[in-house]
Amino acid sequence: MSFPDLNLLFALDALLEKSSVNGAAQKLNLSPSAMSRTLSRIRETLDDPILVQAGRKMVPTPKALAMQKEVKQALNQITELLSNERHTDLSAITRRFTIRANDIFLAKYGQQLLEAISNELPNAILCFTPEEDSIDVDALRSGQIDLYISAERQLGPEICVQPLFDTHFVGVVRDDHPILQSEITCEQFVNWKHIVISRRGKTQGPMDEYLSQFGLERKIAMIAPTAFSAIFAILKSDYILVLPVHLAENAIQNDIHIQYFQLPLPTDNISIVQAWHPQFQQDVPHQWLRRKIRSFSESNE
Fold this sequence. Notes:
The chain is α/β, with parallel strands linked by helices and about 300 residues long. The chain folds into 3 domains: about 5-80, Winged helix-like DNA-binding domain superfamily/Winged helix DNA-binding domain (Arc Repressor Mutant, subunit A); about 95-165 and about 270-300, Periplasmic binding protein-like II (D-Maltodextrin-Binding Protein, domain 2), CATH 3.40.190.10; about 165-270, D-Maltodextrin-Binding Protein, domain 2 (3-Layer(aba) Sandwich), CATH 3.40.190.10. The protein has 12 helices and 12 strands. It has helices at about 5-20, 20-25, 30-45, 60-80, 85, 105-120, 135-140, 185-190, 205-210, 225-235, 245-255, 285-300; strands at about 50-55, 55-60, 95-100, 125-130, 145-150, 160-165, 170-175, 195, 220-225, 240-245, 260, 270-275. The strands form 3 sheets. Strands 4-3-5-12-6 form a 5-stranded mixed β-sheet, with helices on both faces. Strands 9-8-10-7-11 form a 5-stranded mixed β-sheet. It is globular and about 70 Å long.
């Protein structure tokens, strides 16, 4: 006999309370897409649609209404059962948090998170690891990593996903680069040689897809493995580097002599999220970590 997924119970309670996928997602600090997938799992488990469309609203089915009170009572019992755990002394916990995060998050909030860990979980260790694309989901499922923090993308259907903040691409050059002396056009942008960032040595990326829509192609002079190695490479050259704006701002705040400019072509925003496996949903130290990270982005909204 398989043990029931208690996360579905919390999600069901939120869905019945809000009668809305978006409302339930906000209550549980999840993305609407993650809550939508959870609703699909609940429907399959209960063999009932639970919420159905009625004009612009969603209304609960008779079965959902009949079990709403029991769901609430069950959650109250679970909360009471685990109440002692809620009073865990975080300062006494010895824990290693492994976070697979990109440079955007580390540049913007890495120092704040380190300070929070030092103050509230002094015996914990932060271990940041680079993204691995195709094995990120497996790492979450196996518990190899506690959190995935990077650009939003398709993860496993059971993975919990929470939005953090948005960023966008900018052009970055040394602070006395000639391109800064006049209005920057698409033609000027591609006329200078570029540095691209790729751990796998790729020369093509999202920026090249944007440029191709205008019939343009940039000249690649160098491929750097990390954002910061690329930043240092442009300091004594005329090369252009395309970065998320948060990385450029962080470098400038640390007295690196660069400037950034808005790109002369439209690009999409990048949504940065944190994601975790449901096995950690009710784990107290893990909850602290997620709430702390989310609080950083909320303070800047």
